[in-house]
Amino acid sequence: MERSDKSIKPQTAHIISHTHWDREWYLPYEKHHVRLIKLVDELLDRLDEDGEFKSFYLDGQTIILEDYLQVRPENQDRLQKHITEGRLLIGPWYILQDAFLTSGEANVRNMQIGHQDSKRYGEPSKIGYFPDTFGLVGQTPQLMKQSGINNAFFGRGVKPTGFNNTVSDGGYESSFSELIWEGPDGSKVLGILFANWYSNGNEVPVNETEAKEFWEKKLADARKFASTGELLFMNGCDHQPAQLDLPEAIETAKRLYPDMEFIHSNFPDYLKAVEDVMDHNNLSTVKGELRSQHTDGWGTLVNTASARVYLKQMNQEGQVLLEKVAEPLASFAHVLGKDYPHHLFTYAWKTLMQNHPHDSICGCSVDEVHREMVTRFDKSRHVAETIVDDSKRMIAEAVDTSGFAAYGEEVLPLVVMNMTGWRRTGTVSIEIDAARLYLREGFSLEETASRMKDIDLNGRELVDDQGNAITCQMEDLGLQFGYDLPDDKFRQPYMCRRVRLTFEAVQVPALGLRAYAWVRRANAGLPIAPESLLQGDRVLENEAIKVVIHDNGSFTLSDKASGMTYRDLGVYENTGDIGNEYMYKQPEGEQALTTKGLQANICVLENTPYRASVEIKHDWEIPASADNKLDEEQRALVYYPERKAQRSSDTVILKLRTVISLERGGKGLHIETTIDNKAKDHRIRALFPTDLNTATHHVDSMFEVAERNIEPATEWMNPSNTQHQQAFVDISNETAGLTVANFGLNEYEVLRDGHNTIAITLLRSVGELGDWGLFPTPEAQCLGEHVVRMELIPHTGDGITSGAFAEAYQFQIPWVVCQTDVHEGAVAPVYTPFEWESQELAFSSLKMNEQTGDLLLRWYNMSQQSTDLTIRSTIPQQYFYKTSILEEESHPLSSEEKGSSALQIGPCEIVTIGIRR
Question: Catalytic: which of 132, 464, 627, 730?
């Protein structure tokens, strides 16, 4: 596109002071932390002096305030003063997150907590701030609009900004640095691209000679992209100390350019000036995801999705536990009378989100950073697990299990809870205590152990609330130590006889529960078990699919509904990787290794009426590392696409253990792979050829099932076209489709190999950070054992109406089970507090608002068409209302009948409903 350098008069240079504060990156957190303290100390001193230094933007993240006050609590009043006066602009986020690697709910909590923290000081800045986010999800405009934000400032995703802050010269997606960004639901915001990066006004000279040279270039660069005479200059960069003499530098600029106005500005003033003169009709509209697809593909930073995969898995576990388990359980328990632990949720979310900045969750920092992340993941998870344990016990105690009393005294009830948004059938395991003996009862340890060992476990079976016998596998775990931590007395240790029960829970309601009991009764064990799901040791089959395993460990999957057969599934691929934590680079000319030619060791691992599992083992000889040239190139800072290193001739054995499992009522095939990694500088992927002819595919993203092209844009030069995913990727045509669900495996590629093969990255091993220097990261080689999980879900061509996408979402969420006793209760043995029906809606969250005590439920429309939602509740309430993601009530909803409400949901809409009780 041709651009005009013609100046637009009058012109104003808006110079905004800021720092982009990566809490941790090429230095460990505390080393960056010390520098932050110094920066804010000096900034406060300058702000205290006079009003010449107008304002400073604290990078859009309130955690900067927390980090500073942790060391300097005595300066809180000084901070408060300048925030109140509008000289320190804070919020709207808690942290600056990576968009593609953090969940939709995590991004909502980020905005909510950022607003809550900001309001302790004043008002959050309503700036959609994404200065260095590695691409942006398509639903960002809708999330901004629901947050009362009408703009988005960003540095990546569309041209002209590229990796290492280089500027492109053609093929623009937007005519100007100002653009209209439209989300899939139609929401629109004003997009401001940092076309010359968020440091284009950094270190403004005071000296006239230097200033003249500086401004000649900077003004020309800004005019190249701006649509108006309101020119934006960002005075700061990564960890940049505040330029305290900026007022003096601005005075120099005014003398040099008397026809221009130079002001020490801020984002609200800049936006108002732009809006006052902008002609929106001249702006380009960019729709959907911003993923740098119209570039050469070498600088997208997409392979941070596979750097240190273990972090992504821990993050997914932490997100799911908080948003999909702990919050809905705590909401359910609150309805039954238990206090909702808002303070614990805020602490757990903040601790988790401290791992969400792009240099943290992306795995592209030095090793010390990521060691500390593991501790934070554990801390957040431990809080969430405690909330889950307390909540599920409260719920189980409220379930009416008195009907099981008919089986006598030796009755052990248990409650299965399904916290997904769909009815669920699947295999469940629970460890229960068949008998306990508390140490306070005075028996010797020897006698206690003897009594527990003498417990008779025979003659028992599992029954449901209707008395139906449930096929169940019991594993005797023997003598175990345990303890209670009562609220009103000292800890209570005990010894017990523990067993593990594994069975199929059938049709457990969405956000609901079903009670069972392990009982002793005559004729126990007599029910006729269903037929085995195995045929020999190579074939697994249920009513939906059939799987045939081959000698090399690959398998064929036949979908009975669509009639489609998928072949050569489960082959593993291994290639060298001479890139870094940011980007993958395969050695030139290297041929990928695969397990196609290997002989696998195959055996049956499990054969029960409800599930069958087969173990597949490979001993795979692969190169031990890259050759010595890689070290030379790293030390010489050779740009990774230009490296010539190859793989070493030395080899090691890579051990792969794959367990594929099929459940009786399952819609998909579960895959668990254990990798014993002893090699460096390489990548491992699982390959799933689809042989479906289509030009596009679908992938789970934040509050969206995004559609993407299989062929990259014409500008794309990188041989690799890996992309981000969250829960799944899907390839479909009119009659058949294959969805590959994953847990914490955020990178995939659809190979242009004639088969439209879905390749899921399982592990990537590299030895340097990358970017602007040499930072060795030996722990990013990820040596040792790793376990990854996937599910293959075939369907009839539409992932929504077939339920394949719902199955993929359920794959993320664990069952919750709890042992209880026989008692009366207000909750029926099969129960859910909410009911709704909609194929198009994906349920996202259930939580409680801290200020109002209202329950908030959120869904998003997976489809491009409107759909209806009718929700019914058995919880006493005053009324239903619609709200934003900030939980600010917009309008009440009409009620069709007592306890129900209905509304229409727009295409791709994110909808939150409040229930006031």
Answer: 132
Task: Tokens for 417, please give them.
Answer: 């809870």
Q: What's domain 11-289's superfamily in CATH? A: Glycoside hydrolase 38, N terminal domain (3.20.110.10)
Residues 6+ apart with CB under 8 A from 43: 56, 242, 244
What is the crossing angle of helices 76-84 and 29-49, to 10°? 60
pLDDT one-digit tens code per residue, 610-626: 999 999 999 999 999 99
Give yes or no for a contact between 878 and 917, defined as CB atoms under 8 angstroms apart. Answer: yes
Residue pair 614/336 in contact (Cβ under 8 Å)? The answer is: no
CATH number assigned to the domain covering 536-812: 2.70.98.30
Question: How many CB atoms are located within 10 Å of the residue 390 CB?
Answer: 18
Alpha carbon 556 to chain centroid, angstroms: 31
Residue whose structure tokens are 């992504």: 312
Q: Quickly name the fold that domain 399-532+815-819 has.
A: Immunoglobulin-like (2.60.40)
Structure tokens at 142: 């809708």
**399-532+815-819 and 833-916 agree in CATH topology:** yes
Task: Enumerate the domain spans of the chain.
Answer: 11-289, 399-532+815-819, 536-812, 833-916
Q: Which residue, 666, 392, 655, is CA-closest to 546?
A: 666
CB count in 10 Å sphere of residue 724: 28
Is 132 one of the annotated active-site residues of the chain? Answer: yes
Give helix 63-71 / helix 29-49 axis angle, nearest 10°. 90
Task: Output the pTM of the full model.
Answer: 0.96
pLDDT, tens only, 839-885: 999 999 999 999 999 999 999 999 999 999 999 998 887 789 999 99
Enumerate residues 6+ apart whose C-beta is below 8 A from 859: 421, 838, 841, 842, 843, 844, 869, 905, 910, 911
- What is the pLDDT, as a whole number, of residue 228? 95
- Tell me the angle at which helices 327-335 and 367-398 cross, rounded to the nearest 10 degrees: 30
Contact criterion met (CB below 8 Å) for 18 and 198:
yes
**Mean pLDDT value across the chain:** 95
How would CATH label the architecture of 833-916? Sandwich (2.60)
